[in-house]
Design goal:
- This protein has 731 residues and is mostly beta strands.
- The strands form eight sheets. The chain has a ten-stranded mixed β-sheet. Strands 18, 19, 20, 21, 22, 23, 24 and 25 form an eight-stranded mixed β-sheet that branches. A five-stranded antiparallel β-sheet has the order 13-17-15-16-14, sandwiched between helices.
Length: 731
């Protein structure tokens, strides 16, 4: 496909002030003062007029009011339309891959009202989406590009700040970045609550520094996209194959399908495609895809403003995509991304591959003076170093990350990072006695290893920003996710070297419970037949586990009659009586109408609950020639892959009893109820004397018959004995 890349060129017209002086032989004093005043005003610096610009968010979307929608426009047509429309405040441009062919279909929505300007509004994740917000920036340096800044909500880069100013608006902060003269402003952070504006000459791609985006609620991160190609990096800019733990072929295939092409060219070689990206001026080109030698009139060079740093999920994005249903035999090509190289002063040509950190060639002096308050007990503790700093390290196992919390007895300066991932998984610590590093469990950023539910990593506490010394600490952290209900275990012990410490943590699988609620969300124990009830299986919200219910049985209180409501696969046996479970946070729920068994008022529910790490996969069920998920919405029958089983066969059985009354049972004498009781108001009653069942009546009859038979037998034996006894004859 060919994509137009003509950006809307706006011409800047300066307005000049022309003054005419009246001719005459005499100039009055007032005229002279007026001329001096005009000259002084011309010498004063004037504020630049506001110019239109755009900020862009990648794979995010804000709520807004759409007043116009059109399909199959190019990205630049959509953005240019919003630029020309005075009512347009934002444009949402989405592009999806047609599953029947490797082609993209676009959708452009113009919004005259957007929540993006509200700092408290939370953006929603949206795949293959560019959200562009119109801005008014007071700067002469606003570039004639589709957008001037890339926005990442609720993120910051720790440290690397060059200037701190206070501005009343975000637009003023972005204008300050464009107007900065002392250094090249590559990124901005704006704190909406404190009106703090931080300018930096570093961004997510800066080399030789330890850059990581971390969560910061209420603060947004912006990257300057008005930079010239030569200003994209502090030092030399080069292009190379993206090495991120994913095969180059898989990355190139994802890029060809899911990246929106900014410009297409026909070139004779890969070097010509590289040169086209390096000198591109209509947008900041960060990557390109070379499809091999040209064939006919087809384009073989695609330029993009994206790279893996721009994507919210980073390298993990490339791991989960699938091949198109139809392969048209087009070449996958070779994908290259820009890389910012280190300066010659920071390069270390003698360092072998795989070293922990790249050591600076300049001499490094370390303070080796011991703390005078250091005691023998502190000196021998494996969690303390020779400077007297002691570390209290704890591990918190979450569903998607491992949180390593560190507390010290004195302020710490240095870094904490994952061993082997010092540039992608690290935190800079500046004079702090409490800090935390979040180790991602998926992807290659932190390189967390997993084997059968056990996730492990190695964390380094390093004093110096570049080199590792003997005073630094290395901790081996481990999270064991066991699907059975076990107590949490935590231990710490040195291994081999005193600097290496093991920390193991196993989050306890919380016991589930059953709750039955009425329409007012009140827990009930006695109901009537036909009452609408909410059957819930709950675990605490702050647990990394999910649950999956199967083999659920409803039993009469005497346990002689039972009815399976959920089978061994987690599917309802009769959805008209008891529907399948749906997910509500960490809980499972099913809305049903109360029923009971013929010979018993008491109904006991018993379920087998399995644990999963994170949300459990739903079961695919069938009923009346339709297919649906027991934990999700009903959908039409389709060909699907079998649902994933939970990671362990450990389970727990839970039960709950409820009393179900017949219609009109409130009028019987063996119920104790207030005369004002009105069952239409969902009130409950209490049974004083249970109703006799067939079994109890039959048992009573048999007992009475046996007692009568025993009485008759006793009388018979008595008279027979008396009759058989010989009578005495009196002489």
């Amino acid at each position: 496909m060919q994509i137009a890349t003509k950006a809307n060129k706006s011409k800047s017209r300066g307005e000049g002030l022309t003054s005419r002086s009246a001719a005459g032989t005499m100039i009055s004093r007032g005229t002279m003062l007026a001329i001096v005043a005009v000259a002084m005003l011309m010498m004063l610096p004037h504020e630049a007029a506001a110019r239109m610009a755009f900020e862009k968010l990648t794979d995010y979307d804000f709520a807004g009011t759409t007043y116009y929608s059109v399909k199959n426009l190019s990205l630049y047509e959509c953005q240019g339309w919003c630029r020309e429309e005075a009512d347009c405040q934002a444009a949402a441009f989405s592009f999806v891959v047609n599953p029947l062919s490797p082609s993209q279909e676009t959708h452009c929505q113009l919004q005259n009202d957007s929540s993006a300007a509200n700092p408290s509004a939370a953006p929603q994740r949206s795949a293959n989406m560019y959200y562009m917000v119109k801005l008014q920036l007071r700067s002469e340096n606003v570039c004639h590009r589709p957008w001037s800044f890339e926005r990442v909500p609720n993120k910051i880069i720790r440290g690397l700040d060059n200037a701190l100013i206070y501005t009343s608006t975000k637009e003023a902060c972005l204008s300050a970045c464009l107007n900065e003269k002392r250094f090249i402003c590559r990124s901005v952070e704006y704190d909406y609550n404190n009106m703090k504006c931080v300018l930096s000459d570093s961004d997510r791609r800066s080399s030789g520094q330890f850059v990581q985006l971390v969560d910061a609620q209420g603060t947004d991160y912006f990257e300057n996209l008005c930079l010239k190609p030569t200003q994209a990096c502090k030092n030399t800019r080069s292009f190379a194959n993206a090495r991120m733990g994913v095969s180059e072929e898989k990355v190139a295939q994802y890029v060809g399908l899911h990246y929106y092409t900014d410009k297409e060219l026909q070139v004779t070689s890969e070097s010509a495609c590289r040169l086209a990206c390096e000198i591109e001026s209509e947008f900041l080109c960060r990557s390109f895809l070379y499809l091999g030698q040209p064939q006919g009139a087809q384009y073989n060079c695609r330029l993009y403003h994206l790279d893996h740093k721009t994507l919210p999920d980073g390298p993990s994005t490339y791991l989960n995509h699938e091949r198109p249903l139809i392969d048209h035999g087009e070449p996958i090509g070779q994908y290259f991304e820009n890389q910012c190289e280190k300066s010659a002063a920071n390069a270390n040509s003698n360092s072998p591959p795989g070293t922990l950190d790249k050591i600076d060639t300049l001499p490094v002096s370390l303070d080796t003076i011991e703390d005078p308050n250091l005691t023998n007990m502190t000196r021998n503790d494996v969690n303390c170093d020779k400077t007297g700093t002691c570390y209290d390290v704890s591990v918190h196992c979450k569903d998607t990350r491992i949180a390593v919390q560190v507390r010290t007895n004195k302020p710490f300066n240095g870094r904490i990072y994952a061993l082997g991932r010092s540039e992608t998984c690290n935190i800079d610590v500046i004079n702090s006695d409490a800090f935390r590093l979040d180790l991602t469990m998926a992807g290659q950023d932190c390189n967390t290893q997993s084997v059968t539910g056990v996730y492990s990593n190695t964390v380094v506490l390093q004093h110096h920003s570049v080199v590792m010394t003997k005073a630094d600490k290395i901790y081996k952290v481990k999270c064991t996710y066991d699907m059975s209900s076990k107590n949490i275990t935590f231990g710490m012990m040195p291994i081999r070297d005193p600097e290496m410490i093991h920390i193991n943590s196993s989050p306890e699988a919380p016991p589930p419970r059953i709750r039955i609620l009425d329409t007012r969300q009140r827990e009930v124990e006695t109901v009537r037949i036909g009452d609408r009830l909410n059957f819930r299986i709950e675990i605490p919200e702050d647990t990394p586990y999910g649950i999956f219910a199967r083999s659920c049985v409803a039993m009469a209180k005497d346990a002689r009659t039972s009815f399976k409501i959920i089978d061994d696969d987690g599917c309802p046996t009769d959805p008209t009586i008891f529907p399948g479970f749906t997910a509500d946070g960490n809980a499972l729920q099913s809305t049903y109408e109360a029923f009971r068994f013929t010979e018993s008022y008491g109904v006991i529910f018993q379920c087998n609950v399995k644990y999963c790490l994170g949300p459990c996969d739903p079961a695919v069920c069938e009923w009346n020639m339709e297919s649906f998920e027991s934990l999700g919405r009903r959908r039409r029958r389709s060909i699907e892959s079998p649902s994933n089983e939970t990671k362990s066969e450990d389970h727990m059985n839970i039960s709950q009893e409820i009393l179900v009354l017949d219609f009109g049972d409130e009028k019987r004498e063996f119920f104790k109820a207030d005369p004002s009781t009105d069952f239409s108001k969902d009130k409950t009653v209490t049974i004083i004397e249970p109703c006799p069942t067939k079994t109890s009546v039959l048992a009573l009859a048999v007992t009475c018959a046996l007692m009568i038979l025993l009485y008759i037998s006793t009388l018979f034996c008595y008279y027979m004995k008396k009759w058989m006894q010989p009578h005495k004859i009196v002489a």
